[in-house]
Amino acid sequence: MTAPVTAILLAGARPVPDPLALAAGVPVKPLAPVAGRPMIDYPARALLDHAAIAQLVILTQRPDLYAADPATAWLATHPRVRFETGGQGIASSLLALMEGEGLTYPVLLTTADHVLLDGAMLDQFVAEAAGADVAVALVERRTLLARYPQSRRTWLKFRDGWWSGANIFWFGSDKAKRMIALWQEVEQDRKKGWKILAAFGPVALFGALLRLLTLRGGIARVGRKFGLAARLVAMDKAEACIDADKPEDMTLIEAILRSERPEA
């Protein structure tokens, strides 16, 4: 049985104003309404409703904004929720949090714009990530396009398919800090897949470019390089990689929330 999981929900702000926040007239993107509720409300409730999650840590530069908003004030008083103040960088904020006290492993990390996160996704991810030092959730392109053919994502191409991130990560032990330190180095280039691969060495970079590596094997190999067990979790649900990043994402997400079979 998996040990009680600490969930971290990233709810920070970008260094520059976010277009979705500006359009909604709210100070930070996680407070932007989706189908009448702040987007952070959806993943927060999904995490707290899941049996594996023991506590929820919300990492943000402005905890006061959530306590002041009537729609999210419940988070500030919930007995299993605590706010931690982060800086501008995700990786540096995580490392600071992990170096402090009161954070127990395993840790599941996701984002406040993961509006469609649900119990089925958490069931699969926790079950398949358990036992790893680091795990990352991804969705293969065929899984997404079979259900939402017009959805546009950032894809990394490997021998075992085209993959897009699902913004769910697993840190099973203190060893995960080794990978987060590398994440810190390439954080500004996280949308540029080849730069991230280059950080793992020429074998990973050219292997991916020549389609010599599977992503599953590549993640495991990188993990071994850092002395830890790393794992890919291929998510079954296409919705796992649809986050609220652009206006068209918001339109699709609201359609999904309204109907089990939206026109995408």
From TrEMBL:
SUPFAM superfamilies xref list: Nucleotide-diphospho-sugar transferases
Keyword set, alphabetical order: Magnesium, Membrane, Transmembrane, Transmembrane helix
Keyword Membrane: yes
Signal sequence range: none
Annotated TM spans: 194-215
A family per Pfam: NTP_transf_3
The protein, known as: Nucleotidyltransferase family protein
